[in-house]
Protein backbone atom coordinates (compact mmCIF):
# COMPACT_ATOMS: atom_id res chain seq x y z
CA UNK A 1 0.00 0.00 0.00
CA UNK A 2 1.27 3.48 -0.89
CA UNK A 3 1.57 6.37 1.54
CA UNK A 4 -1.31 8.21 -0.15
CA UNK A 5 -4.03 6.22 -1.94
CA UNK A 6 -6.62 8.05 -4.02
CA UNK A 7 -9.39 5.73 -5.12
CA UNK A 8 -12.03 6.74 -7.64
CA UNK A 9 -12.44 10.23 -6.19
CA UNK A 10 -15.17 12.50 -7.56
CA UNK A 11 -16.11 16.04 -6.59
CA UNK A 12 -19.45 17.50 -7.59
CA UNK A 13 -21.08 20.83 -6.74
CA UNK A 14 -24.83 20.32 -7.31
CA UNK A 15 -25.07 19.43 -11.03
CA UNK A 16 -21.46 20.42 -11.86
CA UNK A 17 -18.92 17.62 -11.91
CA UNK A 18 -15.55 19.22 -11.12
CA UNK A 19 -13.36 16.13 -10.76
CA UNK A 20 -14.08 12.54 -11.75
CA UNK A 21 -12.40 9.15 -11.49
CA UNK A 22 -9.22 10.38 -9.80
CA UNK A 23 -7.11 7.32 -9.05
CA UNK A 24 -3.51 7.54 -7.97
CA UNK A 25 -0.90 6.52 -5.45
CA UNK A 26 1.83 8.69 -4.00
CA UNK A 27 4.83 7.50 -2.04
CA UNK A 28 6.27 9.38 0.91
CA UNK A 29 8.82 11.98 -0.16
CA UNK A 30 7.44 12.54 -3.66
CA UNK A 31 7.09 16.09 -4.99
CA UNK A 32 3.99 16.30 -7.17
CA UNK A 33 3.52 19.39 -9.28
CA UNK A 34 0.03 20.01 -10.66
CA UNK A 35 -0.88 22.02 -13.74
CA UNK A 36 -4.16 22.45 -15.57
CA UNK A 37 -6.56 24.95 -17.08
CA UNK A 38 -8.04 27.60 -14.84
CA UNK A 39 -11.13 26.30 -13.05
CA UNK A 40 -10.46 22.62 -13.72
CA UNK A 41 -10.41 21.70 -10.03
CA UNK A 42 -6.78 21.87 -8.90
CA UNK A 43 -7.49 23.88 -5.74
CA UNK A 44 -10.52 21.72 -5.02
CA UNK A 45 -8.26 18.68 -5.15
CA UNK A 46 -5.73 20.30 -2.78
CA UNK A 47 -8.55 21.25 -0.40
CA UNK A 48 -9.68 17.63 -0.34
CA UNK A 49 -6.15 16.57 0.62
CA UNK A 50 -6.13 19.27 3.29
CA UNK A 51 -9.49 18.11 4.61
CA UNK A 52 -11.41 21.37 4.14
CA UNK A 53 -13.44 19.85 1.26
CA UNK A 54 -14.73 16.33 1.11
CA UNK A 55 -15.04 14.18 -1.98
CA UNK A 56 -18.54 13.29 -3.11
CA UNK A 57 -17.48 9.77 -4.08
CA UNK A 58 -14.41 7.60 -3.59
CA UNK A 59 -11.81 7.62 -0.85
CA UNK A 60 -8.44 9.06 0.07
CA UNK A 61 -6.19 7.44 2.64
CA UNK A 62 -2.92 8.61 4.15
CA UNK A 63 -0.59 6.09 5.78
CA UNK A 64 -3.35 3.49 5.64
CA UNK A 65 -5.95 5.64 7.40
CA UNK A 66 -8.96 7.28 5.72
CA UNK A 67 -8.42 11.02 5.37
CA UNK A 68 -10.26 12.96 8.06
CA UNK A 69 -12.40 15.78 6.78
CA UNK A 70 -10.71 18.42 8.85
CA UNK A 71 -7.24 19.94 8.64
CA UNK A 72 -4.70 18.50 11.05
CA UNK A 73 -1.00 18.95 11.65
CA UNK A 74 -0.10 16.15 9.24
CA UNK A 75 -0.84 18.58 6.39
CA UNK A 76 0.27 22.18 6.03
CA UNK A 77 -0.77 24.61 3.30
CA UNK A 78 0.60 27.78 1.73
CA UNK A 79 -1.61 29.86 -0.54
CA UNK A 80 -0.75 32.28 -3.34
CA UNK A 81 -2.05 35.25 -1.37
CA UNK A 82 -0.08 35.97 1.74
CA UNK A 83 -1.86 34.53 4.73
CA UNK A 84 0.18 36.06 7.54
CA UNK A 85 -1.19 38.19 10.37
CA UNK A 86 -0.44 41.87 9.59
CA UNK A 87 -0.35 43.04 13.22
CA UNK A 88 2.24 40.47 14.34
CA UNK A 89 6.01 40.40 13.75
CA UNK A 90 7.73 37.57 11.89
CA UNK A 91 8.60 35.84 15.16
CA UNK A 92 5.12 36.35 16.61
CA UNK A 93 3.49 35.04 13.43
CA UNK A 94 5.46 31.80 13.53
CA UNK A 95 5.12 31.49 17.29
CA UNK A 96 1.35 31.86 17.08
CA UNK A 97 1.14 28.98 14.59
CA UNK A 98 3.23 26.85 16.96
CA UNK A 99 1.22 27.81 20.01
CA UNK A 100 -2.07 27.28 18.25
CA UNK A 101 -1.03 23.83 17.13
CA UNK A 102 0.07 22.83 20.64
CA UNK A 103 -2.69 24.57 22.54
CA UNK A 104 -5.60 25.22 20.16
CA UNK A 105 -8.04 26.29 22.85
CA UNK A 106 -5.85 28.73 24.74
CA UNK A 107 -3.40 29.64 21.97
CA UNK A 108 -0.99 30.33 24.85
CA UNK A 109 1.98 28.38 26.09
CA UNK A 110 3.74 28.87 29.39
CA UNK A 111 7.08 28.12 31.01
CA UNK A 112 9.29 25.49 29.37
CA UNK A 113 6.79 24.86 26.57
CA UNK A 114 6.86 28.55 25.66
CA UNK A 115 10.65 28.67 25.72
CA UNK A 116 10.87 25.55 23.51
CA UNK A 117 8.32 26.97 21.08
CA UNK A 118 10.30 30.22 20.78
CA UNK A 119 13.51 28.29 20.07
CA UNK A 120 11.79 26.20 17.41
CA UNK A 121 10.21 29.28 15.86
CA UNK A 122 13.61 31.00 15.58
CA UNK A 123 15.12 27.86 14.01
CA UNK A 124 12.32 27.68 11.48
CA UNK A 125 12.69 31.38 10.67
CA UNK A 126 16.36 30.75 10.07
CA UNK A 127 15.56 27.74 7.85
CA UNK A 128 13.45 29.94 5.56
CA UNK A 129 16.12 32.67 5.53
CA UNK A 130 14.30 35.32 7.55
CA UNK A 131 16.53 35.61 10.63
CA UNK A 132 17.40 39.22 9.83
CA UNK A 133 13.69 40.13 9.78
CA UNK A 134 12.67 38.53 13.08
CA UNK A 135 11.04 41.66 14.50
CA UNK A 136 9.67 43.10 11.28
CA UNK A 137 5.96 43.33 10.49
CA UNK A 138 4.56 41.86 7.25
CA UNK A 139 4.13 45.29 5.62
CA UNK A 140 7.90 45.76 6.02
CA UNK A 141 8.60 42.54 4.06
CA UNK A 142 8.81 41.97 0.31
CA UNK A 143 6.40 39.53 -1.36
CA UNK A 144 9.04 36.81 -1.37
CA UNK A 145 9.77 37.36 2.31
CA UNK A 146 6.07 37.16 3.13
CA UNK A 147 5.87 33.82 1.34
CA UNK A 148 8.93 32.64 3.27
CA UNK A 149 7.04 33.57 6.43
CA UNK A 150 3.91 31.72 5.25
CA UNK A 151 6.07 28.63 4.60
CA UNK A 152 7.60 28.92 8.08
CA UNK A 153 4.11 29.14 9.59
CA UNK A 154 3.09 25.96 7.76
CA UNK A 155 6.29 24.03 8.58
CA UNK A 156 6.46 24.94 12.28
CA UNK A 157 3.58 22.51 12.78
CA UNK A 158 5.86 19.76 11.44
CA UNK A 159 3.53 18.50 8.71
CA UNK A 160 4.52 15.46 6.70
CA UNK A 161 2.63 16.72 3.68
CA UNK A 162 3.02 20.26 2.39
CA UNK A 163 0.35 21.63 0.04
CA UNK A 164 1.37 24.64 -2.03
CA UNK A 165 -1.36 26.44 -4.01
CA UNK A 166 0.48 28.62 -6.54
CA UNK A 167 2.74 29.92 -3.77
CA UNK A 168 4.97 31.93 -6.09
CA UNK A 169 2.32 33.11 -8.57
CA UNK A 170 2.54 36.71 -7.39
CA UNK A 171 6.35 36.93 -7.27
CA UNK A 172 8.86 38.34 -9.75
CA UNK A 173 10.86 35.76 -11.76
CA UNK A 174 14.16 36.54 -9.98
CA UNK A 175 12.60 36.03 -6.56
CA UNK A 176 10.89 32.86 -7.75
CA UNK A 177 14.27 31.29 -8.49
CA UNK A 178 15.33 31.86 -4.86
CA UNK A 179 12.04 30.44 -3.64
CA UNK A 180 12.49 27.34 -5.81
CA UNK A 181 15.80 26.67 -4.15
CA UNK A 182 14.26 27.23 -0.73
CA UNK A 183 11.42 24.79 -1.37
CA UNK A 184 13.80 22.14 -2.71
CA UNK A 185 16.02 22.57 0.38
CA UNK A 186 13.07 22.36 2.79
CA UNK A 187 11.62 19.36 0.96
CA UNK A 188 14.90 17.46 1.48
CA UNK A 189 15.60 18.74 4.97
CA UNK A 190 12.17 17.92 6.43
CA UNK A 191 11.55 14.84 4.22
CA UNK A 192 8.25 16.28 3.07
CA UNK A 193 5.75 14.96 0.58
CA UNK A 194 4.76 17.97 -1.49
CA UNK A 195 1.82 18.76 -3.76
CA UNK A 196 2.24 22.06 -5.56
CA UNK A 197 -0.14 23.76 -8.00
CA UNK A 198 1.53 26.01 -10.52
CA UNK A 199 0.52 27.85 -13.67
CA UNK A 200 4.15 27.83 -14.75
CA UNK A 201 4.86 24.63 -16.63
CA UNK A 202 8.61 25.16 -16.42
CA UNK A 203 8.34 25.48 -12.66
CA UNK A 204 6.36 22.24 -12.60
CA UNK A 205 8.98 20.41 -14.64
CA UNK A 206 11.87 21.80 -12.65
CA UNK A 207 10.62 21.35 -9.10
CA UNK A 208 8.66 18.12 -9.09
CA UNK A 209 9.54 14.47 -9.21
CA UNK A 210 6.18 13.90 -10.88
CA UNK A 211 3.98 16.23 -12.88
CA UNK A 212 0.22 15.77 -13.00
CA UNK A 213 -1.93 17.45 -15.63
CA UNK A 214 -5.59 17.93 -14.72
CA UNK A 215 -7.84 18.15 -17.76
CA UNK A 216 -11.22 17.04 -19.07
CA UNK A 217 -10.92 14.17 -21.49
CA UNK A 218 -14.65 14.34 -22.24
CA UNK A 219 -16.46 17.56 -23.07
CA UNK A 220 -20.16 18.16 -23.77
CA UNK A 221 -20.46 21.69 -25.28
CA UNK A 222 -24.19 21.72 -24.35
CA UNK A 223 -23.48 20.89 -20.71
CA UNK A 224 -20.12 22.21 -19.48
CA UNK A 225 -20.61 20.68 -16.03
CA UNK A 226 -21.46 17.19 -17.27
CA UNK A 227 -17.90 15.91 -17.07
CA UNK A 228 -15.10 16.57 -14.64
CA UNK A 229 -11.35 16.82 -14.97
CA UNK A 230 -9.10 13.82 -14.49
CA UNK A 231 -5.36 13.34 -14.23
CA UNK A 232 -4.62 13.05 -17.93
CA UNK A 233 -0.84 12.98 -17.63
CA UNK A 234 1.24 11.61 -14.77
CA UNK A 235 4.91 11.71 -15.69
CA UNK A 236 8.25 11.64 -13.93
CA UNK A 237 9.94 15.02 -14.30
CA UNK A 238 12.76 17.06 -12.82
CA UNK A 239 16.30 17.37 -14.03
CA UNK A 240 16.56 13.56 -14.16
CA UNK A 241 14.11 13.41 -17.00
CA UNK A 242 14.63 16.42 -19.20
CA UNK A 243 13.70 14.58 -22.43
CA UNK A 244 10.25 13.55 -21.21
CA UNK A 245 9.75 17.11 -19.94
CA UNK A 246 10.42 18.56 -23.38
CA UNK A 247 8.11 16.09 -25.15
CA UNK A 248 5.30 16.71 -22.68
CA UNK A 249 5.77 20.47 -22.81
CA UNK A 250 5.28 20.38 -26.58
CA UNK A 251 2.25 18.10 -26.29
CA UNK A 252 0.54 20.35 -23.71
CA UNK A 253 1.25 23.43 -25.80
CA UNK A 254 -0.38 21.73 -28.78
CA UNK A 255 -3.43 20.81 -26.68
CA UNK A 256 -3.70 24.43 -25.56
CA UNK A 257 -3.52 25.68 -29.16
CA UNK A 258 -6.12 23.22 -30.47
CA UNK A 259 -8.38 23.82 -27.47
CA UNK A 260 -8.01 27.51 -26.53
CA UNK A 261 -10.68 27.28 -23.81
CA UNK A 262 -8.26 25.14 -21.87
CA UNK A 263 -5.22 27.30 -22.40
CA UNK A 264 -3.61 28.76 -19.27
N1 LIG B 1 -17.58 25.99 -2.90
C1 LIG B 1 -17.88 25.87 -4.19
N2 LIG B 1 -19.16 25.81 -4.63
C2 LIG B 1 -19.47 25.66 -5.92
N3 LIG B 1 -18.55 25.56 -6.91
C3 LIG B 1 -17.26 25.62 -6.55
C4 LIG B 1 -16.85 25.77 -5.19
N4 LIG B 1 -15.49 25.76 -5.14
C5 LIG B 1 -15.07 25.63 -6.41
N5 LIG B 1 -16.14 25.55 -7.25
C6 LIG B 1 -16.07 25.36 -8.70
O1 LIG B 1 -15.23 24.27 -8.95
C7 LIG B 1 -14.46 24.49 -10.14
C8 LIG B 1 -13.01 24.25 -9.84
O2 LIG B 1 -12.50 25.30 -9.01
P1 LIG B 1 -10.99 25.30 -8.52
O3 LIG B 1 -10.78 26.56 -7.75
O4 LIG B 1 -10.70 24.03 -7.84
O5 LIG B 1 -10.20 25.36 -9.92
P2 LIG B 1 -8.66 25.60 -10.17
O6 LIG B 1 -8.25 24.60 -11.18
O7 LIG B 1 -7.90 25.64 -8.89
O8 LIG B 1 -8.68 27.06 -10.83
P3 LIG B 1 -7.56 28.21 -10.87
O9 LIG B 1 -6.39 27.66 -11.61
O10 LIG B 1 -8.22 29.32 -11.60
O11 LIG B 1 -7.23 28.57 -9.43
C9 LIG B 1 -14.78 25.90 -10.61
O12 LIG B 1 -15.73 25.82 -11.66
C10 LIG B 1 -15.39 26.54 -9.39
O13 LIG B 1 -16.33 27.51 -9.76
From TrEMBL:
<dbReference type="InterPro" id="IPR017871">
    <property type="entry name" value="ABC_transporter-like_CS"/>
</dbReference>
<keyword id="KW-0813">Transport</keyword>
<dbReference type="GO" id="GO:0016746">
    <property type="term" value="F:acyltransferase activity"/>
</dbReference>
<dbReference type="InterPro" id="IPR027417">
    <property type="entry name" value="P-loop_NTPase"/>
</dbReference>
<keyword id="KW-0547">Nucleotide-binding</keyword>
<dbReference type="GO" id="GO:0016887">
    <property type="term" value="F:ATP hydrolysis activity"/>
</dbReference>
<dbReference type="InterPro" id="IPR003439">
    <property type="entry name" value="ABC_transporter-like_ATP-bd"/>
</dbReference>
<feature type="domain" description="ABC transporter">
    <location>
        <begin position="4"/>
        <end position="241"/>
    </location>
</feature>
<dbReference type="InterPro" id="IPR003593">
    <property type="entry name" value="AAA+_ATPase"/>
</dbReference>
<protein>
    <submittedName>
        <fullName>Lauroyl acyltransferase</fullName>
    </submittedName>
</protein>
<keyword id="KW-0067">ATP-binding</keyword>
<dbReference type="Pfam" id="PF00005">
    <property type="entry name" value="ABC_tran"/>
</dbReference>
<dbReference type="InterPro" id="IPR050093">
    <property type="entry name" value="ABC_SmlMolc_Importer"/>
</dbReference>
<keyword id="KW-0808">Transferase</keyword>
<keyword id="KW-0012">Acyltransferase</keyword>
<dbReference type="GO" id="GO:0005524">
    <property type="term" value="F:ATP binding"/>
</dbReference>
Amino acid sequence: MSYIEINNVWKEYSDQIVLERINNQVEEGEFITIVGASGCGKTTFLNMLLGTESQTRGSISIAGKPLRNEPDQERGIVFQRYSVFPHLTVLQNVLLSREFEQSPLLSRLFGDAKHKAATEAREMIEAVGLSAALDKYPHELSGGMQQRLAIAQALIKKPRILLLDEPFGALDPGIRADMHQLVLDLWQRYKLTIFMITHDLKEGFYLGTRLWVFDKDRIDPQAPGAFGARITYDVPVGSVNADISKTLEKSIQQTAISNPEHAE
